[in-house]
Amino acid sequence: MRPTVGNLYADLAPDAAAERFDALLARRDVTIERIVSMGQTSPDGFWYDDPRDEWVVLLAGAAALQFDGGAGELRLAPGDHVHIPAHCRHRVAWTDAREPTVWLAVYFPAGEGR
After folding, report:
1. For 18, 53, 78, 114, which has the most beta carbons within 10 A of its beta carbon?
2. pLDDT tens-digit map of 68-111
3. Which InterPro entries match (predicted)?
């Protein structure tokens, strides 16, 4: 067995037309994914509603999330992270259109977060 090595900032290839999703590790119960955004938002009226818990950290750029229920925007800067429980409906309100916004998302079974 050999280790797998990579760099989260390599080959960002920002694209104003579509977000980029790269699975870095996928196991039975855990998925780790790098997401690169360049001005993308969730479509109007669309809400993520994942059956898994999600922990996400913003590594570069800037973004804001919205949560169902009208709590306003949660603005994120590099280093900010958030645990989103399963079925907590949320959407991407905005991402920086001038530079790549790099996210690291970890998905795991519901109820196993802190």
Report:
1. 53
2. 987 789 999 999 999 999 999 999 999 999 999 999 999 999 98
3. Cupin_2, RmlC-like_jellyroll, RmlC_Cupin_sf
Rg (CA), the chain: 14
Task: State the fold for domain 20-108.
Answer: Jelly Rolls (2.60.120)
Locate the DSSP E strands across 5-100.
20-26, 31-37, 53-60, 63-67, 73-76, 81-84, 90-95
CA distance 62 to 78: 7
Quick count: other Cβ atoms within 10 Å of Cβ 6?
A: 11
* Sequence-ordered list of residues with C-beta below 8 angstroms from that of 78, at least 6 positions apart, any chain: 58, 59, 60, 61
Residue 11 corresponds to which amino acid? Answer: D
Residue 30, token pair as written in the block: 């855990």
Judge contact between 101 and 63, C-beta under 8 A: yes
